């Protein structure tokens, strides 16, 4: 158990809908990262937050957005969903944002029908 | 453009044997990461390599980095069945106000008893 929690574990929704994925980092970790893993695209880094501020942005689509709240949990919002958004979404946390070891949550499996 | 290539993509080896997974990247990077993923599971961070000549070891796994050759290796010593998993490398880079974090395609390792 990494200490990082993600909810929900599974999510099934329809095209055009909007969903929110939630991540709680390990106690004491200030940085949260979001990743997407799909058969088509492999593993992709989406976005990183550090202590409530966006730190780095990767291949995150404009239809997606994220934020980190004062209690350091983070949410990834996916809107206008398409079939191709079906994937595993992982979050990870680290003590700081400077390339230290990341601890990964169990992931949320999103299926868009 | 930052690209990461891993080889081999698939590796089947006998217990007790040694083998090496290679990770090549196309441009200068800041850090190199190695991860492990068990089937149906999340990612586990193995190593973060920061500088040329860096070597890190954990159990039967040893990772090294040659920034001049833009090459990292993950060496497996005396493989055991429990090492069966998919191994990913990734590199990141800040340049001209842009951040890139790119994963390799992964190496699926199967250790046969």
Tell me about this structure.
The complex is a heterodimer of chains A (about 110) and B (about 110). Chain A is mainly β. Chain A is about 0% helix and about 55% strand. In chain A, the strands form two sheets. In chain A, strands 2, 4, 5, 6, 9, 10 and 11 form a seven-stranded mixed sheet that branches. A four-stranded antiparallel sheet of chain A has the order 1-3-8-7, with no helix packed on it. In chain A, strand 5 and strand 6 form a beta hairpin. The model of chain A has no long low-confidence stretch (mean pLDDT about 95). Chains A and B meet through strand 5 and strand 10 of A and strand 5, strand 9 and strand 10 of B.
Task: Tell me the structural class of chain B.
Answer: mainly beta
Query: In angstroms, what is the radius of gyration of chain A?
Result: 13 Å
Q: Given the helix and strand composition of chain A, which structural class is it? A: mainly beta
The largest inter-chain interface, given as chain pair and residues per side, is: A-B, 20 and 20 residues
The Rg value of chain B, from CA coordinates, equals 14 Å
Question: Helix count of chain A?
Answer: 0
Helicity of chain B, in percent? under 10%
N-C termini distance of chain A: 31 Å
Shape of chain A: globular
Strand % of chain B is over 45%
Mean pLDDT of chain B: 93
* Tally of DSSP β-strands of chain A: 11
What is the tally of beta strands of chain B?
A: 11
Secondary-structure element string of chain B: EEEEEEEEEEE
Provide the low-confidence segments of chain B as ranges. none
């Amino acid at each position: 158990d990494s200490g990082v929690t993600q909810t929900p574990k599974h999510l099934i929704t329809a095209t055009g809908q909007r969903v929110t994925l939630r991540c709680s980092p390990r106690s004491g970790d200030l940085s949260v990262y979001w990743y997407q893993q799909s058969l088509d695209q492999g593993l992709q880094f989406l976005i990183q937050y550090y202590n409530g501020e966006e730190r780095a942005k990767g291949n995150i689509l404009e239809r997606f957005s994220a934020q980190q709240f004062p209690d350091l949990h983070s949410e990834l919002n996916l809107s206008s969903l398409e079939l191709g958004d079906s994937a595993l979404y992982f979050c990870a946390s680290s003590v700081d944002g400077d390339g230290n070891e990341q601890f990964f949550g169990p992931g949320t499996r999103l299926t868009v029908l | 453009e930052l690209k990461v290539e891993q080889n081999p993509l698939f590796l089947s080896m006998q217990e007790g044997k040694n083998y090496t997974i290679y990770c090549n990247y196309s441009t200068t990077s800041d850090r190199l990461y190695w991860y492990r993923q068990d089937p149906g599971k999340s990612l586990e961070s193995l190593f973060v390599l920061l500088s040329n000549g860096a070597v890190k070891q954990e159990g039967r796994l040893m990772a090294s980095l040659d920034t001049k050759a833009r090459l990292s290796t993950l060496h497996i010593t005396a493989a055991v069945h429990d090492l069966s998993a998919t191994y990913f490398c990734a590199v990141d880079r800040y340049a001209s106000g842009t951040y890139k974090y790119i994963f390799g395609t992964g190496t699926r390792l199967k250790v046969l008893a």
